[in-house]
Amino acid sequence: MAVEDYGEESIGNAIGAFDDVNGNALRMTFAPTNFIGMDFGNDEPSHTNPGDLALLQVYNDATLVGFSTVVLNRDDLMNQSISFNGASFDSAIFSYTDSFFNPFTGGGVASTGLIEIVDNISLVPEPETYAMLLAGLGLIGFMARRRKEAIV
Ligand SMILES: [Ca+2]
Ligand SMILES: [Ca+2]
Ligand SMILES: [Ca+2]
Ligand SMILES: [Ca+2]
């Protein structure tokens, strides 16, 4: 994996999931979340077939709870995005696959895959996480106030 500027295949610096001989993908973990979105590039026409997909799978405690797909436009430019909105999840896997979700896109090259390049990842934590954060902040504020009162 590397963070670099991939020119037209990224928007400035982006994450690349390199070494695709084993059908590598990009795995992300985070606090419980309801929305994830990202842009993707490196959709090489020479390493894909028409109908090949960007696949975003979301997991909660390692259980698959949802996924979304976007058909690659195969122009090697970062000009498409993918997102998932709904169930609570705490990790996600982004990969390029063939139309049957196999991790080897191939194209003119036998048994090869495609390096995932993603950029502008956005996450929206689930409301319960916000509520807990706010409750935590409120408690700290209350304790600080109490301490002041005790000093005076
Ligand atoms: Ca960027
Ligand atoms: Ca791959
Ligand atoms: Ca490329
Ligand atoms: Ca593209």
Number of domains: 1
- Overall geometry comes to elongated
Mean pLDDT: 88
Encode the helix/strand succession as letters. EEEEEEEH
| CATH domain topology | Jelly Rolls
Q: What does the main sheet amount to?
A: 7 strands, antiparallel
Quote the beta fraction. over 45%
**What is the CA-atom radius of gyration, in angstroms?**
20 Å
Strand order of the largest sheet: 1-2-7-3-6-4-5
Give the CATH level 1 class. Mainly Beta
Based on DSSP secondary structure assignment, what is the total number of beta strands? 7
Distance between the termini: 56 Å
Q: If helices are DSSP runs of H or I spanning 4 or more residues, what is the number of helices?
A: 1
- Helicity, in percent? 10-25%
Note poorly predicted spans.
none
Hetero compounds? calcium ion
CATH architecture descriptor text: Sandwich
Question: Strand pairing plus helix content: what structural class?
Answer: alpha+beta
Quickly list its features.
152 residues, alpha+beta, 7-stranded antiparallel beta sheet, binds calcium ion
What report would you give on this structure?
This protein is of the alpha+beta class and 152 residues long. The protein has a single domain, classed as Jelly Rolls (Sandwich). Helices cover 16% and strands 46% of the residues. The protein has 1 helix and 7 strands. The chain has one helix spanning 127-151, and strands at residues 2-5, 13-17, 26-41, 53-60, 63-71, 80-97, 116-125. Strands 1-2-7-3-6-4-5 form a 7-stranded antiparallel β-sheet. Strand 1 (2-5) and strand 2 form a beta hairpin. It starts with a strand and ends with a helix. 28% of the residues are buried. The model has no long low-confidence stretch (mean pLDDT 88). Bound molecules: calcium ion (CA) (4 copies).
